[in-house]
Structures are given as structure tokens and as C-alpha cells.
Amino acid sequence: MEQRSESESASSPAAPARAGDYELHYRPCVKRVRVEYNGTWIADTTRAVVLHETRQPPAHYIPKADIRMDLLRKSRHQSHCPFRGDASYWSLEIDGQRVENAAWSYEAPYRGAESIQGHLSFYRSRISALYEGDDEVPFLETNVASLHANPLAGWLLKDAWKAASAAELARQFLGFLRGSGCPVDRSTIIIPTLHPQIFASVLVWRADAAEIRTIYEPHDILRQPRFADSPFAPIIRGAGGVRRRLEDADVKLDFPVVRDLHREGATDYVAMPFRFSDGQINVVSLTSFARGGFGVAHLGQIYEVMPMLGRLFEVHALRRTATALLETYLGHDTGKRVLNGLVKRGDGEHIDAVIWFCDFRGSSSLAESLPREVYLEQLNRFFYCMAGAVLKKGGEVLKYIGDAVLAIFPTTSGAEAACRRALQAAALAAERVAALNGAHPDAAPMRFGIGLHVGTVTYGNVGVPQRLDFTVIGTAANEAARIESLTKELGQVLLASAAFAAHVPGRLVPVGRHRLKGLEGEYELYTAPERDLRSGAAKQA
Fold first, then answer.
1. Is the pTM of this model over 0.90?
2. Which of 220, 323, 393, 415 could tie 411 with a disulfide, CB 3.0–4.6 Å?
3. What would the pLDDT profile of 115-140 be if each residue is shown by its tens digit?
């Protein structure tokens, strides 16, 4: 007797199928079914079940008892179907040959697919032949052309590319779903990202909210119960998907989010993976509060287009990753310039800026005397104090040169404002150094020097075409580095040029005229009063 699809049993028998509907029909095969690989029969049954699925070739499911299971080896590969469940895979090993993932099975199928439990189906492209009776069943490809009958596919091809961000893509897609009759009320999309501080971007959509909410979850979310105990954690690790029909009396309430939704009156919950081209697993969840929840037609249309939708999300994810990595490794403004096309040697411009150069004193002796891990921890503390203060006050960290930091404060909003921000960053850096020295009394105290100058520099790409560096070069940059080198000789935490001091009148005090190594003439230098560097770091030797 034919097992009817869920969508059929839930609708009126007289209701005609609509164009684009997605249907499943499980039918017992009345003929003998055999599977052959290179002359060896690997399955022979009179109990096969044939699945007829919209826009897919028929799939023959054969009981394990009628298969040469000694020729099959279970693999670690898994996939998920929102209306059949999690699929396990088997590889075929015969005559010294191995065919990876040649067959699949739903060992614990969802309601409506019970007739294929304990059965395997073979990929037609990975076996030699499949016979019904004496006739070989022709190998049919997925009917991609008819995919256009799916309204979601049409929308993806016509309109989805216009979305300017992943959040906008999700908002438009879910809005289209709901507008086309799918009873989706809530959705969460999780996309892991390559970022030193962010584990994943989480897009939260509600039908009753005008905007989609974007949450950037840190890496420690992996250790927090709200993620570790959610369906998302096992899915991202490759465990398949989750379907909970919350109206069922015997529904499995095994996740906190499922229990919460059940209490709220939700009727259906689906969480399923979708992959990027590099294999990265992402997750989309869909929740319905409508009676009956999601039908096969709803989930089937979504399932069909998930690879296409995944590629669109991947485009946005790759751009975000590129932006994040460029900002992390080059700096916010510098990374933006590179991403906007300044990628050739010589690309750049002349800008006016405050140049900040600072150095970790005694770093070489610490590197020789401390274990590598301890030294690196101390070096990163120094960078936290210096580079962190620069970023906090609106500067751009261009590079770490060994144990030194080169940064700029562009004078876009005026030289006086840039110079004041640089002095504020110096004071904050000194405060952080004092705090860390106090917190680690057993460690050698951090000592440092900061040189400040303002002038015109060339801001752009230098190097060779195969390895470029986006930085600042020019006389002003050299002068800032030479000014910093005098801080130890003059016993000062901070030294600034006369050009810098002129933009912050009354804030700095002169320390005389001095020669800068490798440069002609003498330079009037200034320092900050001790009261402006309240950390006490001004008294360092």
C-alpha cells in the first residue's frame, strides 16, 4: 500500500497541486530490484520502497537485510533533510576499489518517512546499474530546469543579488518566504567567521519586528551553556539537523530552546545546516506558531534552494572576512583603502598626520632572559598599553616593528585635534603601563619611550609586487623615530617636536635643542609635564 506524503495527508483530497509545490511519495516497488557494481551483485530485493520527490529522480530504498553489507563501510559523512532527518553514509569496498559515500540511509527518520527506516539507497552515479525486474532503470539527473517552478528559486535568481549585506539578504528572503505562504514566524542564522574576536555572526529575524538584529558572538560563546546546550553546537560540528514538531504529544524536548518555544506555543521548529564552498557549516533555524507548522511543500522549496542561498551568504561572509582581516592586520582606515582598490605598488597619497613612534625599553634583554611564552605575554601587554591607547583615541596603528609601534593620527579634523588625541593616548598608555606594573610586581617593570611629530608623509604601498606593505614613509616619519630614540638618553617618557608642540600651546615644556641621528641640524624638543603622565612612568630610568 502506498504511503502518502505528509503534505497529502494534511490537505483535502480534492485540493489540486499548485505549481511549484514540493511533494514526497513513498511507494512499494512491485518488481524485483537489484544493484550491480562492476559485475558483482550488491543488492537483491522484492521489498524496495521508491521515493518520488519533486524535481528529483526516483530513489530506491532497499532493506539492509537484502544488501551485501559486508561490502559496505560506514563513513563519517552526514547530511540533513528537513523532512526525512539525518542521513548516514556508506562507502562501497569491492575488489580492492573503494567508492566513497556510495549509499545513504535515514536510521531514525522523521514522521512521514518511517517506511524507509532500515533501508539504504545508492547513488546511481556511483554504481554500475540498478534493475527493476529485467529492465535497467535509466540514470536520470536532477531536473534542474524545472527548479524554476519553485518561487524561491525565481526570487533568488532575480532579486537576491541586490541585497547589500547578509542581514538584508536574510530579511528579504524570510520576508519573501512569509509572503508566499510559508508560516515562518522566527528565524536565526548563524555564520561562523574568521575573526580574532568574533566566532560567528548571528542574524535574528522576527516576523513582528521591522528590522533584523545582528549579533557578533565572541569565541568564548563556545563554552557558554546557551550555545553548548543549543541545537546549533552539534550542527556546526557536523551532526546533521533538528526537527521538532512541537504539537505532537510525544515531542522530544531535548534542548532549552525547544522547551522554551514549546511553552510559548510554537508548533514547529527546524534547524538545518547549509555549507559554504570550503565545507564550512552554517545553521539556519525556522520556527512556526501556525497550526500544523511547516508542510513538506514549505520545507522542500527551502531545501531545494539552500545551496544557492548559501552561496549568496558566502559572498557576503567573504567580504566581511576580508574587511575584518584587513582591518585587523593593516588598520581600519588602511584596510579600507586596500579593499577599495589601492593594491598596486606606488598607490597612495600625501597626507598630513601626527606620527607616533614608541619603543619597549629593555625588550632585548627580556627576550634573552625570559621563557618564550612569558616574553610574548609581556610584549603583548606592552602592545595593549600602547597600540590599545592609540586605537582608543582614534589613531591608526600601522605596524609593529619588533617591539616598537608605528601609528598615525590623521589631521583630517585639524592638526590641533590630532595632536591632542595623541597626547591623550600617551597619557592613557602610561596609565595602563603603571596599572600592569602594579598588577605584576614580580615581573620586570615595563619601560617605554614615545616620540611624537606632525608633518606630511606618503601614505601608501611600498615593497615588491608579490609582498607589499601599506605604511607611511618620508622625512617626518624618520624624524618621529629619531625623536623617540632620544627618550632614553634624555630620561623622558615622551618627546615631541616643535612642530607638534606648536599645535598644543601650553601643554608641553621644552627640553632644549638636540641633534637627531642621521639628520642635519638641531631640533627643539618638548616633553609633557609629569602631571600629564600621572602614572609615574615619567620617573623611569
1. no
2. 415
3. 999 999 999 999 999 999 999 988 77
